[in-house]
């Protein structure tokens, strides 16, 4: 043996221990990364889209309610009147449905998709025209609000 020269030998399993450590740390980090991706999508993408969708549904409900009240306020004693208008086809990249519900004592415009639902009250149409408004539609295509003094079958 030469002086000043020390040769320490490493155990044979040192490379394996380093590899196992690397795989375990990488696995844990990948697991945390996947959890973060799921949370980021739910909190930073879906929540704002749902909030904007709810606001858009409220705006559409108010506009449609106003349109219906306008048609009924202009309705003739005898005859009919129709108003055509266009609604957005999609809100947040997805379609939605509109339904007029209630009776002569109180009616609402209900706009919904999945679990997002908005109800907007209409002014007393039923009391003023001796009948209730009704029907349903979607945002696709041109929509109409019609009044006929003889009623619809």
Q: Kindly estimate the percentage of residues that lie in beta strands according to DSSP.
A: 25-35%
> Roughly what is the average pLDDT, rounded to an integer?
83
Element-by-element helix/strand order: HEEEEHEE
How would you sum up the global shape? rod-shaped
Q: What is the terminal separation in angstroms?
A: 111 Å
Total number of strands: 6
Class computed from helices, strands and strand pairing: alpha+beta
Largest sheet: 4 strands, antiparallel
Helix content percent band:
40-55%
- What is the tally of helical segments? 2
Spatial order of the strands forming the largest sheet? 4-3-2-5
Low-confidence stretches: none
- Kindly provide the radius of gyration, computed on alpha-carbon positions and rounded to a whole number of angstroms: 32 Å
